[in-house]
Amino acid sequence: MKLTLKYFLLLFALWNGVEAKIFGRCEFVAKLRSLGIPGNQLATWTCIANFESHFDTKAVNSQTGDYGILQISEIYWCSNSNTPGKGCHATCSQFLNDDINDDVACARHVFDETQRWSGNGFTAWTTYDRYCKGNVDSFIANC
Question: CB–CB of 42/32 below 8 Å?
């Protein structure tokens, strides 16, 4: 069995007792609010987390190399080594625990960079065009 670096890092994180968490929808919304996400973006971020990871902080897409609750890409934004790197100056494995502060900080950076060159920061996530474009207020209803 071939053990890639990606799987090694995931196993290492799990072996080291990294606590993962599956957030409830409204719990996720409350966390985003506490981290200063603008109210007019809450529903879209919540929709993205729902379709990207089902609010699971340990989600890894082995086909695309995306990590964590907001599926941060290893291609541009995080390093698959023990040394933080790429656009968010982070290791991908640090997005697999129950502390999503760094996930949200990186996602905001991805959003800002994408916004700067494309005009819509949410297009960095493929689920945006497919599921989260338009009125998605139902994702924050009753929260």
Answer: yes
State the catalytic residue, choosing from 27, 52, 102, 129.
52
Q: Which of 19, 56, 66, 98 is catalytic?
A: 66
113 part of the active site = no
Percent of the chain with pLDDT over 70: 87
Structure tokens at 63: 């086909």
- Note the pLDDT tens digit of each residue in 75-106: 999 999 999 999 999 999 999 999 999 999 99
Q: Is 112 a catalytic residue?
A: no
Distance between start and end Cα atoms, the chain: 45
In whole angstroms, what is the distance from residue 6 CA to residue 128 CA?
A: 25
pTM (two decimals): 0.86
